[in-house]
Amino acid sequence: MNDGPDNVALKAGEFDSEVIHFPDTQPLVLDSGGEIAPLTIAYKTYGSLNAARSNAILVCHALTGDQHVANTHPVTGKEGWWSLMVGPDKPIDTDRYFVICANVIGGCMGSTGPASIDPATGKPYGLDLPLITVRDMVRAQAMLLDALEIETLFCVTGGSMGGMQVLEWVATYPDRVFSAIPIATAARHSAQNIAFHEVGRQAVMADPEWRNGRYQTEGTNPRKGLAVARMAAHITYLSESALHRKFGRSLQDRDALTFGFDADFQIESYLRYQGMSFVDRFDANSYLYLTRAMDYFDLVADHDGVLANAFMGSKTRFCVVSFTSDWLFPTEGNRDIVHALNAAGAHVSFVEIDTDKGHDSFLLDVPELMATMSGFLSACGRARGLAEAAP
Amino acid sequence: MNDGPDNVALKAGEFDSEVIHFPDTQPLVLDSGGEIAPLTIAYKTYGSLNAARSNAILVCHALTGDQHVANTHPVTGKEGWWSLMVGPDKPIDTDRYFVICANVIGGCMGSTGPASIDPATGKPYGLDLPLITVRDMVRAQAMLLDALEIETLFCVTGGSMGGMQVLEWVATYPDRVFSAIPIATAARHSAQNIAFHEVGRQAVMADPEWRNGRYQTEGTNPRKGLAVARMAAHITYLSESALHRKFGRSLQDRDALTFGFDADFQIESYLRYQGMSFVDRFDANSYLYLTRAMDYFDLVADHDGVLANAFMGSKTRFCVVSFTSDWLFPTEGNRDIVHALNAAGAHVSFVEIDTDKGHDSFLLDVPELMATMSGFLSACGRARGLAEAAP
Questions:
Q1: Listed residues A291, A322, A351: the one ending a domain
Q2: Which of A239, B145, B317, B322 is spaced 20 to 30 A from B158 at the CA atom?
Q3: Between helices A191-206 and A284-296, what is the axis angle to 10°?
Q4: Residues of A numbered 46-105 whose beta carbons fall under 8 angstroms of chain B's beta carbons: which are they?
């Protein structure tokens, strides 16, 4: 194809992913009015696309996730973030489905983001990258699917910010989504969640090494600020009862309080580790861009104040999932989505899963989640006429 | 008195308080094994002590509160933090009761804290001040009451960290407390609350202007770090529903999103203001010391794992108060105190107040709280034989 994307799949060593480059003539047009060109998308796939090209599942990752869903992560060496969910004989069965996950635009694992080179300057964009919205992320994914010649997704799923993308997919490309599983998400970001994100951003920006976003060029790195942001956010991903069960007031490698500011308590040691390890794999400016995208997400306002308008006439089959102990994206906000889907006459199931593991439940071994995903996908697979997996 | 405290009340211009200096011969002995000498306590009083010295109410302030309960604050120019509660004809009626509030040890409004001069060096203590516990705060208050020749308190009350002091008062000086009103507190700090405090401390310590606590000497000030700590903490003082009601997704002085990192949303602008104004009145090292004191608070562990042991034989009349929307010190933790008091055979009332205002409810105009305080104090006043207030 002339002027088409450079869709010779490349191994980008650093990111261990397939990479697609769209030329300047195929810019990503943004909600802000700006555009990104050239555009790069890094992605991973698992399983095989069937001949009818009808078995593709798009997995949308969360704020600090990436495309490494079910393989060893190239930076951390840990298992992919949804290894429990995606793989042979897993609920998202890669013997049956073709799974795609792309690093979101604004991210830092190979897709165009603030650390990418700005063609106008030859230096990293920093804050010169236009602001990204969840819809922009979804538009970029649609460009990827076009390049992969996948017209319709069998399913699109993800939790948290991933769930926002799921909702946006259905709202923006209603005819391209056969089924959708938004998990632990909301149709608009709450004031409390904006507040927590703002704390994280201020923590990054308060770090003098942030240098107004130009730290790559200046050879600095706002590690401390980003670690504080991560620590604060991490608390919100868990639940009070899970923290009590896992840590309580247990001391860290000591028999008594030290009367000092060392990490006397296991929970302190754990949080510090979460902060420090995060900065090894994540870009501070990406953290600003992606939290902002979530803050801006408001599917209600985008549809004249009536969420049902986002789904009117939708033929997509929905399964909405929430967790009882998730106080960041509580069941109530997920139920609002269900009510809107009902009002729009859509085909919807709703499962509230009883667990004390908090918002992060969607990443963890929660048997009822596995069973829900597996059962819903199987039923949709039959409706879609997909072959059953080999016994 | 020779070697007695210098109890000539001084106006400390900066702190607009009464100040009492205890000489080196009257050190404050600390839980850590260390001691503080000389010791200074800054305090305020309201109303008049009766002839029987039987109408004194000790108000214990919270983490970022101080002794300016019911007067114009000398630094902020705002009304005292409990002006709604304390004053003539208020629930804590200063026509009837003699109200005392002392700045806690470790604080920064005139009592000895990390910003005080270390006699060993002639410079501010910084982190050389020994760590303070809630019991140390209470011991210091007892020294103050001794100096004021008040043997028994008619009541001791306070919310949050103030409530911890109330519980510690009863546990440490059971015969000196006629009645006690712990509000929105817990007998031990939870893992989640330790986690939030640790984030705040790491935010302060990540600020290069903190200089390992020596910022006064070095002429710097970790304002940005402390502001981030305050922002994170402030979210926890409110409730999701209150944030939604007060701010929702309303924009700040603009009609549309700006696609940038300015404070588009009112909640962002509000939080930034909370952070910035806090650093004008609070010392960063005090924030470290007082959060640590709360983390260490564990009345259960202090009494061999049985909270009721802390109250065994207590003749104090208790009124425990919690708020339905308080997720920092939830009703459950307050109910644990009630259960222990019941097990100890103590005289206890328990009121859970239905409000969406979150943990900060104890500071706000919550009519049921006012009625509870007023009614309980009146009943205790009759039992104590206090004269009724003039009609």
A1: A291
A2: A239
A3: 160
A4: none
What pLDDT score was predicted for residue A7? 41
- CA–CA gap between residue A212 and residue B16 (Å, rounded): 41
CATH code for position B221: 1.10.1740.110
Subunit contact A227:B202, Cβ cutoff 8 A? yes
Residues of B in contact with A259 (CB under 8 A): 31-33, 130-131
Minimal CA separation from A225 to chain B, in Å: 7
Task: Give B-chain residues touching A238 at CB under 8 angstroms.
Answer: 192
Taking a contact as any Cβ pair under 8 Å apart, which residues of chain A between 245 and 274 contact chain B? 246-249, 257, 259-261, 263-265, 267-268, 271-272
B29 touches chain A (CB under 8 A): no
- B22: domain CATH number? 3.40.50.1820
Q: Which domain holds residue B209?
A: 193-291
For residues B372 and B390, what is the distance between their CA atoms, to the nearest angstrom? 20
In a domain, A47, yes or no: yes
- Rounded-to-10 torsion of CA B323, B327, B330, B331: 40
Q: Is residue B81 part of a domain?
A: yes
Q: Which among A199, A202, A263 has the least Cβ separation from residue B235?
A: A199
Q: Which residue has the tokens 């030329």?
A: A23
Residues with Cβ within 8 Å of A332's Cβ and at least 6 positions away in sequence, in order, are: none
Is A191 within 8 Å of chain B by CB? yes
Band of the pLDDT at B210, cuts 50, 70, 90? very high
Per-residue tens of pLDDT for chain A, all 391 residues = 344 454 433 344 567 899 999 999 999 999 999 999 999 999 999 999 999 999 999 999 999 999 999 999 999 999 999 999 999 999 999 999 999 999 999 999 999 999 999 999 999 999 999 999 999 999 999 999 999 999 999 999 999 999 999 999 999 999 999 999 999 999 999 999 999 999 999 999 999 999 999 999 999 999 999 999 999 999 999 999 999 999 999 999 999 999 999 999 999 999 999 999 999 999 999 999 999 999 999 999 999 999 999 999 999 999 999 999 999 999 999 999 999 999 999 999 999 999 999 999 999 999 999 999 999 999 999 999 997 655 4
Angle formed at CA B293 by CA B289 and CA B294, multiple of 5 degrees: 120
pTM above 0.80, yes or no: yes
The question of whether B21 is a catalytic residue gets the answer no
A199 and A178: one domain? no
pLDDT of residue A280: 94
CA-closest candidate to residue B188, choices B324, B311, B299 = B299
Active site residue A347: no
Pair (A180, A309) in one structural domain: yes
The answer, for B227 touching chain A at a CB cutoff of 8 Å, is yes
Question: In angstroms, rounded to a whole number, what is the distance separating the alpha carbons of residues A148 and A351?
Answer: 33
B190 contact residues in A (CB cutoff 8 A): 240, 243-244
Same domain as A328, residue A244 = no
Residues of chain A with Cβ-Cβ distance to B244 below 8 Å are 190-192
Residues A313 and A372 placed together within one structural domain of the fold: yes
Structure token digits, residue B97: 């009761």
Q: Is A364 a member of any domain?
A: yes
Residue A124, helix vs strand vs coil: strand
CB atoms B244 and A192 under 8 Å: yes
